[in-house]
User: Fold these one by one.
Assistant:
Number 1:
Amino acid sequence: MKGRVVVIGQHQGREAAALIVDGVLQDLLVDAGDTAPFAPGAILRGTVDRQMKGQGGVFLRLPDGAKGFLRETGGLRPGQAVLVQVSGHAEPGKALPVTTRLMFKGRLAIVTPFAPGQNISRRIKDAEGRERLAALAGAGMEGSPFGLVIRSAAGAADDDDIAADIAQMRGLAEAILDDADGAPELLLDPPGPHDQALSDWMEPAPDDVAQGEDALARHGVEEMIDALLSPSAALPGGGHMAIEPTRALIAVDVNTGNDTSPAASLKANIAAARDLPRQLRLRGLGGQVTVDFAPMPKRDRAALEQQLRAAFRGEANETSLAGWTPLGNYELQRKRDRLPLRQILGG
């Protein structure tokens, strides 16, 4: 299967969407349902509970008895109502991470109430096109102190569609900021997998958009999901890596398989480094990740680390590459922007 295909359908009765490029699953969205109280992107009204000295933040009371943790503490007092946006998923037993830096994300534009200025995606290179989009941004945000980001998909969109998207996001932001006082409440749910796929995966334009109740099955996505529920991920050349979440961290073990040649370890390690971002993304894994690469000479570490940095460079998710430990493992930290796939599906 060649080309870029967006598949929108159902998996185990849940809304789901998959992005397949040249037959390889690159991204996967599955509705978490009741698995998580609030998904990243949700905007909530919370109440300041208490400040945590030494942790640089405050706890919030959120809707439905949930707890939030906010690092921005300036000017906050106990009992004060505050608007926040969920910024990630919580570790088990911990409060939900939230931020006051709200973003109202449309398909073509993002309104940022607390980050003024108008910006156009750097992926739009055409000078004339950027000029056109700047004029639309200026007109759409006239008289507003809010900031605006024009997304890359706007480069191929009609003026009317862009203007409508800006107006919708601006209106939504204004309405929610006018509703800042009161008891904890959910004010805005983030888009589900279908809407998110149609918003985030349309640039560059896909070769096909497949929709329907059985669309995932028709395109082999069901089998791809089944493979992700196994800890083992095959690597080119016969090697594999085992990806196993523990309570403290994500453990990754790279093996060469049956290849015992002198170059086998470096080949398997490079293959694992290149595929690791995709595997973590598809499996919904974040937090501390420790990789036990196949044994290799220390002189090869620099080349392998270069491959890791190149692989993670294009990731939208925040990732910090910490480096090698004294025992020869490699550590990195990845933001928890999704729930683990196995947790959602009960695998």
Number 2:
Amino acid sequence: MRSWVALVKREFLEHRGAFLYAPAIITLVVTTVLAIAILMNQPEFAAEAGEMPGSVLFYEVTFMATFLLWAMYMLIALFFYFSDAFHSDRRNNSMLFWKSMPKSDLEILGSKVLSGYTIFPLAIGFWVMVTGVIAYVFAQVIDMVVVFYTAPSIMQFINSYIQVLLVGSFYALIALLWYAPIFGWAAFLGTLFKRWSIPLFFVIPALAVLLERVINIRDLAYESQILRFIQFRLEMVGEDDVSFDPEVWIMSNTKIDAWGMISYGFTQIDWLHMVIGWAILGGFIYLASEYRRRLIEA
């Protein structure tokens, strides 16, 4: 167990810049810019803010929007992390040390995936929570600037804060689980091609789609099944037009109902493809570990 803790801790120490320091800098810069914009431009801001929605709804929509932006940042950062994680040991010969531990290549790569699905999302989650508090502080500032706007009370803030955190965490978790095969594909290519994995991540599927089109060139109405599958995994939608989209709830005229939003999202998930995606991720991890074990000299 201690070796697993050491492996996960090592991943955090090596990548804390993207998941701890960078979010801290982004939060500081955005907070400073917004504060200056409001305090230095009070009359104009007050005029533009005259049509703000209700205080609680405005806070919830703002917090949910920032939650969505942080989720996008997390997914992008994890994409680059997985593209690099499976081959980073080879840059400074640290693989010599890690191969000396009583852990197989499969377990070491498994610890990298575990880090990507636990400690890094939790680090981003911390900054999401900080952002929610900052949004409430700004609501109080707007209360002082805009005559017809009243900031949420402390009890309203706590209720909305918890509701948004529950909903946002659920959707972020589902996104992480759904995009598992994409992360696995990026990690597997990184094992084989190192720094070339990112361009090849896009080039190889594009060539596969092109080859499929050439094979079926006589069928003018042919629709690429590979491209259809890729779009399905990226958009998280099935053959029907029902989308897994929280905007339906965010843009409504009612306050956020965590249980209702979670229930709605839960019914839109294609659980069979979710399981298939995790099986694909496991396959990529196994193939990458076998490549490291057999073909990379320690």
Number 3:
Amino acid sequence: MQRLVALLIMLIPGIIGVIGVKLMRDVLFGIVHRGFFSLTLQFIIGLLMLLGGLAFVGGFIFYRDRKRNKVQPKFQRKPSS
């Protein structure tokens, strides 16, 4: 059950990142989607969506690896006093 929840948590930001890539790709071909009034705005929103999705997925993986002590020593948590 926990793996399914983790998959769903990872799937949503992944889909957002893919939509961001699609928006940026469509700017190269000059396709403006509904809701955007300029290609520049569409590209910026797409870039933010891509970066947000990547940051969430990367943070999730980093947090999981840090919890399991699979990161370099400089990224490990300091022992609490």
Number 4:
Amino acid sequence: MSKQDPKMNLTEGPIARKLLLFSLPVLYGNVLQSLNGTVNSIWVGKFLGESAFAATSNANNVMFLMLSSIFGIGMASTIMIGQSIGSGDIRQAKRVVGTSTLFFFTLSMFVAAAGFFLSPQILGWMNTPPDAIEMANAYLRIIFMSMPFMFCFSLIMTILRGAGDSKTPFKFLVMAIILDIVLNPLLIFGWGPIPAFHISGSALATAISQLVALAAILLSLYRKKHFLRITRDDRRLLRYDREIIGSLVKKGVPMGLQMIVVSTSALAMINLVNRFGSEATAAFGAAMQLSSYIQMPAMAIGGAVSSFAAQNVGAGKWDRVHRVTWLGVVFNFVMTGVLVVLIYLFNRQALGLFLPEGRAIEIGMTINTITLWSFVIFGITFVVSGVVRSTGAVMVPLLITFLALWCMRIPLSYYLADSYGLDAVWWSFPIGFTAGSLLSVAYYFWGNWKKASMLTYGAPKS
């Protein structure tokens, strides 16, 4: 595949079918990654005890923060590659690949080294329980050592999605997940000549699975002669291109900050709910577990429309960009809506997967009744923001997220809690989500996002 596969060309052909087929592997990958985390947590929690579970929970929070920090930079490279391919400039796309690869590898080595030596301090800052510190440190140090594999594997998957291919990343993600699930009990408990590594075995399973998947996907891409591979003749593209690195940082950091704004607002909500006792906290935790799955279609569609729109922005096909937007909104309504209806039909049974019968389930049912439908509205923000970001307009989506969460939903939830009690808190979700969606749609119609650009030359024009 020395040239781009026509099936991966997102600037031609029927949009609806291609958008759906592109979104589904991303969605399935998100679901499998969540299930993988759940299975691994069961091995540790059930067989190594509460202290071990607390250790991995604290360490995984650090890992999530590290991966979140590079999410935006990965998305920025995806958009630049998509725009370059859409404009027919494969050389520029490979230039982005070369600089992004070198930049990511350097960044990952720095994170790995700093994290390895600072992991005890990091766990101390997180107030990790004393009985879990030693295990968490052993686990986290191995995770940090595997960061170069994780970062590079993540980058390759984003590059392929920017090139219009979501199936190949999914195949190798499945490989990594299956390997991780198989290796977890094997390395935790040992078998035959393989010693028992206990909690370190869980981290080793993650590291090995990421390394094997990285090697396998690279071997596959070079064997198939993928048109974006860096060949011997392209070695000079493996350099620190100041313009591209500037765009990766300038455009990527705000996208990464969006994730941090969302995650910190979730911590603020947990802090508030903790006031009402362990039953309320357990109910909120169970409801959020369910909502995390409900958000997955919107997240997958948001990523898909960003890749779609980026290629069409590069090609100057703004009519297709707008059609992608509205098809993405429709897909979100259908896919997210179906999941919401299913949870409403089996509300008690769904919460019963996480909670024993009692008051916590009643609280959880109230949370779901008030909040679940609003995640359909929240999905509009994912889709519209994905399209807007495809031009390089990243600051306004960050500002909208901050306004909707930290200037509206969080203050409103605390006010409702103090004035009307626990049940009123949940209304902050639909109100905050609606505000965010209205602001996003308003910016889409009347903002100047079409004039944004990822690189200083070749700025897309409407």
